[in-house]
Amino acid sequence: MIEASGIRARPPVVARFLEAIGDPSDRLLLAAFFLSVFSLDYLPQVFAATGSFPTTEFIGFAAIAIVLQRLGADRLLRRWDYIALFVASAVLLHPWRHTGGLALTGVGLLFCLRKDRRLAALGQLSLALAVLDIWGQMELTAIEAKLVPIEAWLAYIPLSLLDSFALLGNSIFHPDGREVSVEGSCSAFRNMLAVALLWLSFMKIRNLEYSLRSLGALAAGLVMVVLVNTLRIDLCAWSAENFQYWHEGPGVGVLSMTMLVLALAIFYVGLAGADDRSAP
Amino acid sequence: MTAARSLLLAWIVTGIAIGAYLRVAASGEAPRTPPRLDFLERADLVAKSLGPFKVERKDADDRFGFWLRSPQCDEAIVVSGDYVEHAPSEQTIAAHFPAAAWRTLYVHDGRASQDFPRLSAYLRLVARRFAAQLTRAPLSVSDLAFFTFHTPAHCLLEADSAVAASQALLDLSGVRSE
Question: Which secondary-structure segment (H or E) carries A99?
Fold first, then answer.
């Protein structure tokens, strides 16, 4: 026979819920904030008629979720952090598509240099997402005039070996006179940012230290993006039919998927032997 | 501090609900298509005045806007319009209008310059777009576009004339040809 008073019953879900919201942990507050950014700014992209599925960004948020799990019940936030989260959440109310990027920028700048590795990881992931969302396009515009001719030149090299193509600035001329101009939107730059976010997500998911090996994996991923994008430009320049397929048709999805799979493979293999941190 | 944390959590959760509601409400608005530079394709402007210039003809392959005539130059001046976000590179422009034979003048935001201020124009566009999003006001063509004037090297194009012609082009935005 068991004495009823001797049994410590597990608190019901409702009681735990009330307890959690009565004195929310830092992890709960941060989780709610990142959930609001995700649900208001990123989730709707899945249902948008235009634009591609934000796979890389979703992996970034998965990394944030895993880092949040490591926070446990620790109290790490300062008074200013609460105010910043309050303001960032207010910014998110506005229906502009990129308010999430602004909110993540603020929170990212606040956390990215913190001594606590978990908060620093959240800050770095936030900044990487914000760069991919807003600031990367500005960076591209700043360097586009110099960068795009280099990418056109890279694409021209193999073509010049195969046929009498010509290069003028960022335009590649087919022997039959057809011209393909490499514009900023054709640049590998955005995909390089996406791959960098993917790498950072891998690093934070596996709780790895930055090392020469991990930086080498990042460099390999970036080189891969440039090579695949160069191949894409070459395919577009080769013939009008190819341009239609690789620039306007299903080829766009094929190359995006190829890039993603290759990046995942490079980071999986490249970071495979790296040691995890012993600290949280 | 416990109360402040609870308040913050309540604010974030409420923010999700309000933000979702505002996004659904915004999605119900009529789509605001950004203004376009389609007035550069209007054939009915040929022989009409554009600021101090007269439109001589449309560009043959619609790559550039108009070929213009002015009293100061014995050859045609080419004007084209482009979006700040997709501005052609200097190399592309030089490929079509080599510096040895042509002078190039850019007009953006009512100012003329010999080099296109790519970054500042883009930052201005971002700021305008941000303000437009906050106020839910539409953007204008002048926020999105800039004009490029290509003049034969031996002709001098006054900045004021280019600015006036650009303004005349901007005034055409939203005016449909019959």
Answer: helix A99-111
